[in-house]
Specification:
By secondary structure, this protein is α+β, with helices and mostly antiparallel strands. It has 18 helices and nine strands.
C-alpha cells in the first residue's frame, strides 16, 4: 500500500515519544518494554516444552501471517487457536502480518488478554462475519466524514465500501490504544506491515513500512514516528501540525493489498454495481440481446478511460464516455462546464447527430433549470448511444438521470454516482468533498 506524506526530513535522534521523527535502527522504548515483559511467559512456556535456555539466549519466536483477505484472517485466527490448544502460543514473542492477517490481529488486540480467550474470540469473530448486517447509510456517513479531511483518499472509500462490508464492523478504535494489550506481557508484540508503493512508477520492490501500537515507520531507513502522530505534518524531523490519528478501519483498508492493483479496484466496482443494482444487470442483458456489448471487458475499458483517458482507447466512443461522465461530475458540483463541452464537441465532430445535440445543449445550458439540464443530459446520452453504439454504463447513468426510468431513488442515484464520481476524482487526485455534499442533499 502507498504510505505517503507521513514522515518529514532531517532532524536529530530524539526520545521515542517527543513529537519528532526518531532516526534509529534500535527498537522503540515501547517495544523494548513490551518484549521485556513478555520474556517471563515465553521462558515458562519453553521450559514446559522441555526447552531449556537462559534469558540472554532465548529464541525470538514469531508467527507470520500471510495476505489473502478474509481467508487469511480466518486462517490466522484458526492457527492461533490451535497453537493455544497445543500449548505453543505462549512461546511466541512477535505476531506479524500483512493484508488479511492484519484484520485478524487488529480484531484480537482489542482485548487486553486475548491469548487467554482466543477460543471465545474465534466464536465471536465467526458470529460477526456470519450474522452481522451491513448498513449502507453508515457506509456513506463514514465516507462523508472522511471526505472533510485534508488527507482524504481512495483508501477511505475502500475502508467504507469494502472493509466494512467484508468484516461487518467499523473498528473506530486507534492502533495506539492497543498498547495495554501489548505491554502487559500476556500477548505477543504485534507488527503490522505494508509496502510503500508509487502507483505511477513500475517498480518491482517497495519500501517496507511497519505499524505498531507505539511507533510506525521505515525499519530499513531507521525513521519512525509515534503512532499517535501518524498522518500529522512534519518538517525537518519536527512535528509541525498535529492531526487526529486514523482509526483501525482506515488502517485495515490501508493494510489490505487490493489497492495495489487498479484493475482489481475496477473489477470490484463493477461487481459492486452488479450486486447492489439488480436493474442494471437486467438492462445490460437487454442491451446484449439487442446486439450491444455486455462484458466486463467493455466496462473495464470504460472505467480505465475515466482514470487515464486515452491510455486504453482513443476512439470517439471511449473518449466520449469520459467527457460525458466528466460533464455530469462538473454539473453536479455546480462547476463551469464550458471546458468539458468544448472537449466533448471536439471528440464528436465526426458524428453528426451527437455533435449537433452537444452544441445545442451547450448553448442553452446556462439558461436551464436543474430538471431541464438532467433531461437534456439524458437526451444527449441517448443520441450518443444510438450513434456510436450502446454502452451499458452510459445507459445505466441515463436511466438514473431520467425521471420515470428503472430507478430514480435517491439511494440508487447516490450510490452509483458516488462510485463513478469518486473513481474519477480520486484517480485524478482531486478534492472529493463536493461529491459528498451532493450526496447529503
Amino acid at each position: 500500500m502507498a504510505i505517503q506524506g507521513l514522515c518529514g526530513e532531517g532532524g536529530s535522534e530524539p526520545f521515542w515519544d517527543d513529537g519528532c521523527v526518531r532516526f534509529s535502527h534500535e527498537l522503540s522504548e515501547g517495544e523494548k518494554e513490551a518484549t521485556g515483559n513478555r520474556k517471563a511467559k515465553v521462558m515458562d512456556c519453553l521450559k514446559s516444552l522441555g526447552i531449556a535456555c537462559a534469558e540472554d539466549n532465548m529464541p525470538n519466536i514469531a508467527v507470520l501471517g500471510s495476505g489473502g483477505g478474509l481467508r487469511a484472517m480466518i486462517a490466522l485466527q484458526g492457527t492461533l487457536v490451535e497453537l493455544k490448544n497445543q500449548g505453543l502460543l505462549d512461546a511466541v514473542m512477535y505476531l506479524c502480518g500483512v493484508s488479511g492477517s492484519t484484520w485478524c490481529m487488529s480484531f484480537l488486540y482489542q482485548e487486553k488478554d486475548w491469548t487467554e480467550n482466543v477460543q471465545a474470540l474465534e466464536e465471536c469473530l465467526r458470529d460477526t462475519l456470519s450474522n452481522s448486517p451491513c448498513d449502507i447509510k453508515e457506509e456513506f456517513a463514514v465516507a462523508t466524514q472522511a471526505a472533510e479531511e485534508e488527507l482524504f483518499s481512495l483508501t477511505d472509500d475502500w475502508a467504507s465500501f469494502f472493509v466494512y462490508p467484508a468484516l461487518k464492523q467499523y473498528d473506530m478504535t486507534k492502533l495506539s490504544e492497543h498498547k495495554d494489550a501489548t505491554t502487559n506481557g500476556t500477548n505477543p508484540y504485534p507488527i503490522y506491515a505494508a509496502i510503500e508503493a508509487n502507483p505511477w512508477q513500475k517498480v518491482e520492490e517497495g519500501t517496507w513500512f511497519e505499524f505498531t501500537p507505539h511507533e510506525s515507520g521505515f525499519p530499513g531507513l531507521g525513521a519512525f514516528v509515534c503512532t499517535e502522530d501518524l498522518g500529522s505534518k512534519f518538517k525537518n524531523g519536527d512535528l509541525k501540525e498535529k492531526r487526529d490519528e486514523k482509526n483501525i478501519c482506515y488502517l485495515q483498508g490501508l493494510w489490505g493489498s487490493a489497492l495495489g492493483s487498479m484493475e482489481e479496484i475496477i473489477n470490484y466496482l463493477i461487481d459492486r454495481l452488479m450486486e447492489i443494482f439488480p436493474n442494471i444487470r437486467k438492462h445490460w442483458y437487454a442491451v446484449n440481446e439487442a446486439g450491444g456489448s455486455l462484458t466486463n471487458n467493455c466496462l473495464l475499458a470504460t472505467l480505465r478511460s475515466l482514470s487515464s483517458p486515452g491510455t486504453d482507447c482513443t476512439c470517439a466512443h471511449c473518449q466520449g464516455v469520459h467527457h460525458l461522465l466528466e460533464l455530469h461530475v462538473h454539473a453536479s458540483a455546480g462547476k463551469d462546464c464550458e471546458g468539458v463541452f468544448r472537449q466533448l464537441k471536439e471528440v464528436l465532430k465526426g458524428n453528426k447527430n451527437s455533435y449537433l445535440k452537444c452544441c445545442e445543449v451547450s448553448e442553452t445550458w446556462h439558461l436551464k433549470t436543474l430538471e431541464e439540464r438532467i433531461t437534456e443530459f439524458a437526451h444527449l446520452i441517448r443520441i450518443f448511444e444510438n450513434e456510436l453504439g450502446g454502452n451499458c454504463l452510459l445507459a445505466t447513468l441515463c436511466s438514473l438521470s431520467s425521471p420515470g426510468n428503472d430507478c430514480t431513488s435517491a439511494h440508487c442515484q447516490g450510490l452509483l454516482l458516488l462510485l463513478l464520481e469518486l473513481h474519477i476524482h480520486a484517480s485524478a487526485g482531486k478534492n472529493c468533498e463536493g461529491i459528498f455534499t451532493q450526496l447529503k442533499e
